[in-house]
Design goal:
With 43 residues, the protein is an all-alpha fold. The chain has one helix and no strands. It has a domain at 11-36. Helix content is 67%, strand content 0%.
Length: 43
């Protein structure tokens, strides 16, 4: 049997803005690395 926990964040507007910026930065870095490693896989 699998168990899961659901957590709700109740962030303030300032915290929401910070989290959105942080997620955007992480997504940008991930995409850059994905592109770089994909270049090495191409024949």
């Amino acid at each position: 049997m699998l168990l899961a926990h659901k957590i709700e964040l109740r962030a303030t507007e300032e915290q929401k803005e910070y989290l959105n910026k942080a997620c955007g930065t992480v997504r940008h870095c991930y995409n850059q690395l994905l592109e770089r490693f994909s270049e090495n896989q191409r024949p």
